[in-house]
Write a structure and sequence with these properties.
single chain; 342 residues; alpha/beta; Arginase, Chain A; eight-stranded parallel sheet; two-stranded antiparallel sheet; 9 helices; 10 strands; 14% strand
């Protein structure tokens, strides 16, 4: 019997309980529902295995966030506040718990990889995290999922040299804050130029400070940049940086709001570009990290293009794992128990 390669999808129905107030707020539960429906009804369905998230330990949250922020966050939601600091950061009564579960999903992903799971591992989670600073929320983000996953990986498994690669349309200011002075990490961000895009950080000149100078690689793109420009930077400065750094693990801040149909940025990426990105990352993970890579969902606010782009991204990774470049959907055999979506 043919063994079907697997994709681990980390999800939890409680992610849907984070209430952003409806209306015009773009970060909605429908984002996750669209992704799961696309995956469960498409050619990747036979490959899916679902895993639930879990609550992190307090000390895991404190590896980046301040105690003062955690108390302020919890108090705000218990008091019935509808946002914290800015209307972008909408909260409901369940948000504090859901944000912790969102952070925990990255830790579950790490455990899966260290436990021997060899296929793509994708945390399909919300709220996102890469804008969250140690003591404040920003840009829909409350806890920095990627940073917390890195610190967990280092603490629990002793993997010191970790690269975070962020292809969200917006610069991950919170990730850069965490690793700006850290010689053991490499942060690579491909994003729309901060002169035109939130949060106004991520200039090419920002390269890390002190002994860690050179461990931050910001690649800002002009509005309208499309597939050819992204492939150029992947095969040039991104690959060169990985060659120099030789990471033990990859954590991917997987945002899909650079798609040409998503009005949250001025970039013009195609759905198929995300397949190419997935293949490149899968190949690099095998070359540099013995396959140790996790991906954590960040942005992407046009449900149809988000869902299609996630599918393409995972198909690209699966192709890298199975050695079938150009075949977006390898191994269509049924794998037994039917998977269930939210």
């Amino acid at each position: 019997m043919t063994t079907v390669p697997q994709i681990a999808l980390i999800r939890d129905p409680r992610f849907l309980e984070h209430d952003t107030g409806g209306g015009d707020h773009p970060e909605t539960p429908e984002r996750l529902l669209a992704i799961e429906q696309q995956l469960c009804n498409g050619p990747l369905a036979p490959h899916l295995v679902f895993h639930s998230s879990r609550m992190p330990q307090r000390e895991d949250l404190l590896s980046f966030h301040s105690e003062a922020w955690l108390f302020r966050f919890e108090e705000a939601v218990l008091a019935g506040r509808t946002y914290i600091d800015h209307p972008d950061n909408q909260v409901g009564y369940e948000t504090y718990q859901v944000a912790q579960l969102s952070a925990g999903s990255g830790m579950v992903a790490v455990d899966l990889v260290e436990g021997g799971f060899s296929g793509p591992v994708f945390s399909c989670t919300r709220p996102p995290g890469h804008h969250a600073e140690p003591g404040m929320p920003l840009g829909f983000c409350f806890l920095n999922n990627c940073v917390l996953a890195v610190r967990y990986w280092q603490k629990e498994y002793g993997r010191r040299r970790i690269c975070v690669l962020d292809f969200d349309a917006h610069h991950g200011n919170g990730i850069q804050t965490a690793f700006d002075k850290d010689v053991d990490t490499l942060y690579i961000s491909i994003h729309e130029h901060p002169s035109f895009s939130y949060p106004g950080t991520g200039y090419q000149e920002e390269q890390g400070t002190g002994p860690a100078r050179g461990t931050v690689l910001n690649i800002p793109l002009a509005p309208g940049a499309g597939d050819a420009r992204v492939i150029e930077v992947l095969d040039g400065p991104v690959q060169d940086a990985l060659e120099r750094f030789q990471p033990q693990c990859l954590v991917v801040a997987a945002g899909f709001d650079a798609h040409r149909l998503d009005d949250m940025s001025g970039l013009a990426w195609s759905t198929d570009l995300y397949r190419i990105i997935g293949f490149r990352l899968g190949d690099w993970a095998a070359r540099f990290c013995r396959g140790r890579m996790i991906s954590i969902l960040e942005g992407g606010y046009h449900p149809d293009s988000l869902a299609a782009s996630v599918e393409a991204y995972l198909a690209g990774q699966l192709s890298a794992v199975t050695g079938s470049e150009g075949n977006s959907h390898p191994g269509r055999e049924k794998s037994g128990e039917k998977q269930r979506c939210l």
